[in-house]
Amino acid sequence: MTRKSGGLRANTRKKFSKSPSEKFTITPYLQEFKPNDKVVITIDPASQKGMPHHRFKGLIGEIKEKRGQSFVVNVKFVTKTKQVIARPEHLRLHTGK
């Protein structure tokens, strides 16, 4: 018997797929956020650098700081607050409810 692979992109065939109509644009790579901004984690499969784990997809967090080209995002996950380090192409500004 072989062991099941449990890599970073395991079980993400549908989650990380893009339709042919979704074109590459440079705008998400040039976004800037300030501390205390609310962001939604939307993973862009075209860029593997700075990609957060797929369990954080769709969660809303708060920018804590900028670290190099990436941002540190505090995300409430189940009962804890987790820190996710992600690049700007994987984040979208949250417009609120």
Structure characterization notes:
There is one protein chain. With 97 residues, the chain is mainly beta. It has a domain at 27-93: Roll (SH3 type barrels). Helix content is 0%, strand content 31%. The protein contains no helices and five strands. The chain has strands at residues 38-41, 60-67, 70-77, 80-86, 91-93. Strands 4-3-2-1-5 form a five-stranded antiparallel sheet, with no helix packed on it. A hairpin with a 2-residue loop joins strand 3 and strand 4. It is globular. The mean pLDDT is 92.
Uncertain runs are none
- The number of helices is 0
Strand order of the largest sheet: 4-3-2-1-5
Write out the CATH superfamily name of one domain: Ribosomal protein L21
Summing up helix and strand content along with how strands pair, one would put the structural category as: mainly beta
What's the N-to-C terminus distance?
49 Å
Topology, element by element:
Elements lengths: L37 E4 L18 E8 L2 E8 L2 E7 L4 E3 L4
Antiparallel strand pairs: 1-2, 1-5, 2-3, 3-4
In short:
The protein has strands at residues 38-41, 60-67, 70-77, 80-86, 91-93. The protein is built from no helices and five strands.
Please give a handful of descriptors for the protein shown.
97 residues, mainly beta, SH3 type barrels
